[in-house]
Specification:
12 helices, 3-stranded mixed β-sheet, 7-stranded mixed β-sheet, disordered C terminus, alpha/beta
């Protein structure tokens, strides 16, 4: 470790330091190439989404590994993918350069990462993104016949304007304002495109038989729930389950629901939720980005995963197509999720 520190101190530029880190990463991963990486926070949702392909008896979900590492370092990742039985064929390894410029080229649905800088860069590029939190100490998900994905409402599925109004004016004014705007749809939030993409997957199955369920878990209650319900109707999408908790703790509901992943923008909800379900922080810009402003920008040792979500994404060599996405601009957002811890 001291040798590593000396090398880094001697590095004349950030580029040289990055090269040193890359060399060390290659040596480390090569030495452990045949040792599988353990599952990370996003593992349940990735495994669950790929499971849908088997249930559909066709490929409606595609997963791509992307990384700032090189392909040599990535050998351990693909060995781990094979060990865990994940049907992943595609990979992009940039040899020290950032991977997110290729997210829109892949025309994906969502971007997840355990690297705060990667999330912020994606947000700055108008890509929906969330920071994957440390996984809970739970038994692995059973081989479920359905995938469950839970979302917060304001600033996640829906725009953040109502949340801002609440913070500025308080609950009573917020309630009156939402009543006046009940028939006016909210703006789409950063995860609205992902919800639309999930609807397309559900539509590939007979009504009521889709192995995928979505849930809205929000601190809103009556009467402010009305605007959200009418907004979803206006968008032509729906969630399978809705929990309007009127300020009650979300953890208890999530512990029963057991989603494969839960998305929220409020750290106070995530601090309790992350102990019982895999969770991801939807970082609000610029309000929360300053929390990560002093973090280092070293490249991750383990790469993320991209799930394409549009007909324009390239077809695999075996002719299997990625999951179809909404052709409208609002749905052309990408997905990334970490394998490994």
């Amino acid at each position: 470790m001291s040798v590593t520190s000396d090398w880094l101190k001697a590095a004349s530029t950030p580029e040289v330091a990055a090269e040193v880190i890359g060399q060390l990463a290659r040596k480390l991963q090569a030495a452990h190439e045949d040792e599988p990486l353990r599952a990370g926070t996003a593992f349940p949702i990735i495994k669950g989404l790929l499971r849908i392909n088997a249930l559909a008896r066709k490929r409606v979900i595609e997963v791509v590994v992307i990384s700032r590492n090189d392909a040599e370092t990535g050998l351990r990742v693909f060995n781990s993918i094979a060990h865990h039985g994940l049907d992943i064929e595609r990979g992009i390894f940039r040899g020290g350069r950032d991977p997110w410029p290729y997210l829109r080229a892949l025309n994906c649905s969502l971007f997840l990462s355990a690297e705060p800088r990667a999330v912020i860069e994606a947000l700055d590029s108008n890509v929906p993104a969330a920071l994957v939190l440390k996984p809970p100490e739970l038994e692995p998900h059973e081989e479920a016949d359905e995938v469950r994905i839970a979302f917060d409402g304001d600033a996640v599925l829906f725009g953040g304007e109502s949340e801002d109004y609440f913070q500025q004016h308080g609950l009573d004014a917020f309630t009156l304002n939402e009543a006046e705007l009940a028939n006016h749809p909210t703006n789409p939030g950063p995860f609205a495109p992902f919800l639309r993409a999930l609807k397309l997957v559900q539509d590939a199955f007979p009504e009521g038989d889709a192995p995928l369920r979505t849930a809205l878990v929000t601190a809103r209650g009556a009467p402010t729930h009305t605007r959200l319900v009418k907004t979803l109707r206006d968008w032509g999408v729906r969630v399978d389950e809705s929990f309007f908790l009127a300020g009650l703790e979300k953890r208890a509901v999530l512990e029963v629901l057991r989603p494969h992943i839960f998305f929220d923008d409020q750290l106070r909800h995530l601090e309790t939720a992350r102990d019982v379900v895999p969770s991801a922080h939807v970082i609000r810009a610029p309000l929360q980005q300053e929390l990560f402003s002093d973090l280092p920008t070293d490249p991750p040792v383990n790469p993320p995963i991209v799930v394409p979500g549009s007909p324009q994404a390239p077809t695999a060599r075996n002719g299997r197509a990625p999951v179809s996405g909404d052709p409208s601009p609002v749905a052309e957002a990408p997905v990334e999720a970490r394998t490994g811890s």
